[in-house]
Amino acid sequence: MATDGFSAVVLVGGESTRFEDGHKASARLGGRTLLRRVLDAADAASAGPPVLVFRSDEQRRTVLDAAEDVAGDAVGLAGDAEAFQGPLAGLYGALDAVETPWLFLCGCDMPLVSATAIDYLGGRRTGDADAVVPVDSSGRYEPLFAMYRRDALLGVEPSLPRAAGVRVLVDRLGSVESVPVSDAPEHVPLDAATTNVNTRTELERVRN
């Protein structure tokens, strides 16, 4: 089992066009913004300060102004890599800010993320694995709540199309440790942790 430390990378760069009013990172659940909830879990689990990835400086200012409970946190900041689009732009944009051999990737819109679930994935790393990725009940990867070996990401970078999605990245990696959410112990809320919200309606479902 790998014992290397890992850094958390939190993607904030989506436009939140379906969230109606404001960026979803600054929406609140249980008295905390969604971004604050993710950072609390990441802080408790990762080896160093989490890295927040924004699409632009303007977005960074807007989100951090709105998510006032994040002000003053010791976090790394990064921007999207120009070579890619979507989540891959954020993932590869964060690599220069990550010094650990492994990174944990998640979105800012995962209100049920927990340090327990993150640590569980970290414990599933093996010496030859390039990634540790949950698999949902329908057999689909959950690549936006996953562990990645930094060197493996750099190794496949030249082969990835500009518009590639994260599942394409997972398919290109040499060795992926698949973790069915149904296999997680009862005390590890892995299935819940992979839940993301794109609309106010979805957030209300989580709240209720």
TrEMBL record:
Keyword GTP-binding carried by entry: yes
Gene3D superfamilies found in the cross-reference section: Spore Coat Polysaccharide Biosynthesis Protein SpsA, Chain A (3.90.550.10)
Molecular function per GO: GTP binding; metal ion binding; nucleotidyltransferase activity
Domain MobA-like NTP transferase intervals: 8-173
GO BP annotations, alphabetical order: Mo-molybdopterin cofactor biosynthetic process
Keywords: Cytoplasm, GTP-binding, Magnesium, Metal-binding, Molybdenum cofactor biosynthesis, Nucleotide-binding, Nucleotidyltransferase, Transferase
PANTHER family, per the entry: MOLYBDENUM COFACTOR GUANYLYLTRANSFERASE
Protein name according to UniProt: Molybdenum cofactor guanylyltransferase
